[in-house]
Amino acid sequence: METSAPPIAPKLALDFNNTAAAFRHRSDKQLARSLFLFQAFQIKPLVKYGPALARWSLDIGLPVRGLMRELFFKQFCGAYTLEGTVELGQSLAKRNVKTVLDYGVEARRTDEGFEACKAEILRQLEHASHHREVAFVALKATGLCSADVLERVQAGATNSMISKQHKHLAERLEAICVKAAEVGIPVLIDAEESWIQEPIDRLAEDLMARYNRERPLVFTTVQLYRQDRLAYLKQLHARGFEKGFKPGVKLVRGAYIEKEAERATRMGYANPLFPSKGLVDVAYDEGARYCLEHLEDFGLFAGTHNEQSCLKIAQWMTANGIAPNHPNVYFSQLYGMGDHITFNLAEAGFNVGKYLPYGPLDDVLPYLFRRAQENSSIQGQSSRELTLLQKEVRRRRKAG
Ligand SMILES: Cc1cc2nc3c(=O)[nH]c(=O)nc-3n(C[C@H](O)[C@H](O)[C@H](O)COP(=O)(O)OP(=O)(O)OC[C@H]3O[C@@H](n4cnc5c(N)ncnc54)[C@H](O)[C@@H]3O)c2cc1C
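A: This is the predicted complex of the input protein with flavin-adenine dinucleotide.
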C-alpha cells in the first residue's frame, strides 16, 4: 500500500447523498444508460431468466452482443484488455481514486487456461509498476485451478492427479507473489464458495506468512455472511502474531448467497451463512472494527457498497485519530456501482480503490450476471443506487 504523510482528520464531512460529486465523471448519456439498467434490474423475471436467455442468444448467434456491450459491459467493466483500462484508471486517479485491476475471466477449465490467467496477472503486476494509479491486483483461485479440484481437496478425496493440480495452483500463486513483492504491488485473493474455500484460505495464509512480514502484501478475503468467519478472522490474527506476519484482509459480506443455500438444502447440511441480513451487517461491522483496533497488525481492505458500514469505519477512524489516508486502510467498490461512496470518500481524503474488471465480453459474463443479481436484491443497497441516479438526473435537469 502507498504511504504518504497522513493528515489528521478528513478534509470534508462525509456526505453520501452528494450525487453531483458521485456522478461528476458521467455524461448525461451515460447517466441515462445507468438509470435504464438499474430500472431493468428491478424486473425480477428479467434478472432470473435473463442470464440463460443471454447465453442462449449468444450461443445461437443472435445479434445481442452489441446491446450487451453498450448496456451491460460498459456499466460494469473497464475494457476488453489491460491496455484499455489505462484511460479509465487515469481519470479515476484525477479524482483520488486508485485502480484495482481485476482480470474478469473466471472458472477456467484447462491447464493452458490457468497458465494464460497466471501470465495475465504477472502482466498486470508489471503494468502496475509503471502506472501509479494502480494500487492492487485482484485474482480468483478458480482462474488458476479448477473448482472441481479445490472441492475434492477440501473434501479430502485426493489422488495423484488432484495433488498435482493443487501443487500447480500453489506454484502459480507463488510466482504471482514473487512478482508482487518485486514490484511492491499488493495482491487480493478473492473468496469463493464455502466448499472450495478451505484450500484457498490455507494457500493464502501460507503466502501471507512468507510475504507479509513487513507489511500486508498478500490479502485474503473474509466473507462475513458466513457464521464462522469472525472467529476465523481472530484466529488468523493470533496466528499472524505468533508467526510474525501481518494479515491483509479484504472484508466482504459474500456473493454466493443463493448457491450456498441451494447446496446446503440439496446435500442436507446446515447453511453456513447467517440466517438474516441484520446478523451479517453486525458481523461485518464487528470484523472491520476488530481490524481497526489492531491496525498495527492488519491491512484492512473494506470491499462493500453498504453506506452504513463505510460510514462506521470512517467515523471510527476519525474518532480514534486514525488518519483517513492511513496506509493500512482502503475502501473499495466495484466499477459501475457505489460511486456515491467511492467519490465522496475520496474527496474526504480516504484511500479508495475501484475494482476495474476487464476481459472479453463472453468471458466476463459470469461476473456481469452476478452484478445483475446483486442489483436486483431488495435487501441490499441496490434500490439506493437507483434512487441516487434518479436524484442526479433530476438535479441536472433543474440545473439546465
Ligand atoms: C470491492 C469488492 C470486492 C468483492 N470481492 C468479493 C469476493 O472476493 N468474494 C465474494 O464472495 N464477494 C465479493 N464481493 C461482493 C460482496 O461479497 C457482496 O456480495 C456485495 O458487495 C454486496 O454486499 P455489500 O457489503 O456491498 O452490502 P449490502 O448490499 O448491504 O449487502 C448485501 C449482502 O448481504 C448479504 N445478505 C443479504 N441478505 C442476506 C441473508 N438473508 N442472509 C445472509 N446474507 C445476506 C449478502 O452477502 C449480500 O450480498 C466484493 C464486493 C466488493 C465491493
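The chain has a mean pLDDT of 91. The beta strands are 98-103, 134-139, 187-189, 218-223, 248-252, 299-303, 329-334, 352-358.
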